[in-house]
């Protein structure tokens, strides 16, 4: 997803940079938050099958960070993520794909009672080719904005990258 478009998502470069900034900020916070990296695990022959380059994490985990391998959109489904994250924990969500894993994981976290923070510019998806209603293409930016609005209405807190310095501090 981080390859140059059209293979990667349209915002691949900016999202990669923003993810790096978020991870750097989280890793330098005192006390540090629990950092959990979720890795999509596909089937044999998929670009994200275990061991393939598309399966590797973008940023190598550091000691103490947790790696969860998921096989469904919702990172809580079929994993031990629900055992690791307390139901009263605040969760910062970032990554790919907005209209699949981000939406499903944020929705599941809300249903568990978690407070969920989603950072604009730190999640992305692909342009969508429309099959129905005359065809055409829905740009990724429009899809991302629609999902953000849907999740915000459901209770997710939307933050901007400018809010990053205060996200991992206790006040």
Task: Provide tags for this entry.
Rossmann fold, globular, 171 residues, 3-stranded parallel β-sheet, alpha/beta, 7 strands, 5 helices
In short:
With 171 residues, this protein is an alpha/beta fold. Helix content is 32%, strand content 20%.
In terms of structural class, how would the helical and strand content be classed? alpha/beta
How would a crystallographer describe the biggest sheet? 3 strands, parallel
The amount of beta strand, in percent, is 15-25%
If strands are numbered along the chain, what order do they take across the biggest sheet?
3-4-7
- Give the tally of structural domains: 1
Low-confidence stretches: none
* C-alpha termini separation: 35 Å
CATH homology group: Isochorismatase-like
Number of strands: 7
Task: Estimate the helix proportion, in percent.
Answer: 25-40%
**Overall geometric form:** globular
Radius of gyration: 16 Å
By CATH reckoning, the class would read Alpha Beta
CATH architectural group: 3-Layer(aba) Sandwich
Mean pLDDT, all residues:
94
